[in-house]
Design a protein that fits this description.
Elements lengths: L24 H12 L26 H6 L5 E3 L14 E4 L3 H9 L9 E6 L1 H11 L4 H6 L1 E3 L13 E2 L2 E2 L2 E4 L2 E4 L2 E2 L15 E3 L2 E6 L7
Amino acid sequence: MADTRNPDTIQHEDPRKSISAAPSFEEYLKQRAGEGTTAAAPAAAAPAAAAPAAAAPAVGGGVASTLSGLQGAGHVWGADGIAVGKEESDIRGHDSFSKFTDACAAAGIDLDAAPYTIFAPTDSCLESYEKMRGPVTADVLKMHIVEGKIASSDIPSATLNSLNGPVTYRYAVRKHFVNDAIIGETTFGAGADFPIDVSVGNSVIHTVGLCFGFY
């Protein structure tokens, strides 16, 4: 059998039967290299970086008005939801702050009298206080009103003088506490966390889930 691996060159009148000279190995390598340098299609441009989220705008209308419309932390059904056909992680409701604002109004405490940091207690935590400690007095309410506008990030180094004397900051278990209430507390599941750094004119609101006078 004839060796067909490197046949001789043949020029035939029928071009289909012609055999052209095979390139040398060196020519073959050059040809391959040329194919490898063919310009690839340009890669799609990377998407532009998203613009940073805008800072939360200051809220107008006064502290009490802002708290009346502020949606507090979301709470899930937990084990109680099973009996009523709910998932444990379903949202049962959100905290509100009307008990605090109503009590301040009844006690003659003006939440807009000066630049304040309001550690606004939720309705549910004031209800717990009333059950276990008795009525929420004006002195207890004043503990939640600290002189000056203090951002949450500045609380660790700030002087915290409330309208009823100093309140205490501490850092423990990777959390920030003021009078044993967690600042910036997170919630379980899909519920919203406790709102903080809600700017209202010259004041700021941080919501808390524990009454300062509890312990």
